[in-house]
Amino acid sequence: MPSMAQSHLFTNISDALAYEHQTTLPDSPFYTSPLSVQNNQTWPGAVIRIERANNYTLPDGIIAWRILYHSLDAEKQDVISSAVVLLPAGTQPSGGWPLVAWAHGTSGVAQSCAPSRMKNLYYGNEGLFEFPKSGLAVVATDYHGLGTSGAHQYMNKLAQAYDVIYAVAAAQSAFPQLAKDWVSDGHSQGGMASWSVAELEKEAKNKHYLGTVSVSGTINMLDFIDPLPKEKGAPFYFPMVAFGLQARYPTFDVHTALTPAGYEHYPLIASSGCWYAGYAAYSSQTSSQIMQPGWTNLPVVRRMLAENEIGTSPVQGPMMVLTGGGDTSVPPEGVRKTAVKSCKNGVSLFFHLYPGLDHDPTMTQSVQDQINWIKDRFAHKPFVGNCGAF
């Protein structure tokens, strides 16, 4: 769930849309105005546009900037993504501010659902601001298609990881006060993205990449979209998954996955409604009501599951993997099983389960643990994993 979601669990779509309108900044040409014909820098990570952001609700002293930059989609085609850079208050340390590349959880799939268009940056009240308050700079990507034009390849580990990685490159080129060393951190959808970042950085052999934090990550996609009855799950995400499938595989027909009841509100979430609207539209419905029987066995879904597999590839740097024992959105047993599989495949990680915590509280109540672990990476302290102990 997004920031403050637990106190705003609307079941009426009109109320949800009104709340989203209230917490969203006005439309800005920053995201969509034509690019300068003189801007011929199109490599991934190249900065397109920068502007100081003075319209967020931020803690005292934190400075925010919006950036527009080139990235890649899942097929390594050039796309344009947006992000926010948060600079801490106080005296810049020698070598620059250590950098956290933040990957957010599901905000929606429509262009209007970019966290950088939200007054509190979506996760502001859920721990994001604690990072700059602790002396860590942040670059927080929106993911392509959120904010910028183009279809958001929702729940695709490659597309989201590229957006994170190239947000770092863009931020470091635009802000010399940032250090070269960085870590990735993400929650939910972002927990999968941050893990994928670790895999890609292993291929790149990036010495400045120091590790990953994955919190309640959708690192076991089959468990996420087809949970066991005892795991409950969150079917209101599944129409968004259908959107992501069509964005990734354009010939896919969403009607093969959605029932007529499931499609009823699909145009809304595909065009303008974000997380709250999606929750209101589908929260009272079961998976069998909104999704076609056997939809997870569709060839395109199996292709998506194969592309998003986590735990079989080596990673760069150590990992911290966190989950909540009471998580009803991303089943914790699926997260644990993926961590066990990763350990068996030689990945060095630390796993921790917070007993009884649901999806959002796991993020909120683990923030200080995340910050402490991240600071240890920047201090180059020895990493102690716990493979075999969970």
TrEMBL record:
The record's annotation in InterPro entries points to: AB_hydrolase_fold, Lipase_secreted
Q: Please list the GO terms describing molecular function.
A: triacylglycerol lipase activity
Q: Would you say which domain of life the source belongs to?
A: Bacteria
Q: Name one GO biological process term.
A: lipid catabolic process
Q: Name one Pfam family in it.
A: LIP
Concerning PANTHER family, the annotation shows:
LIPASE 5, PTHR34853
The protein, known as: Lipase
Write down the species. Acetobacter syzygii
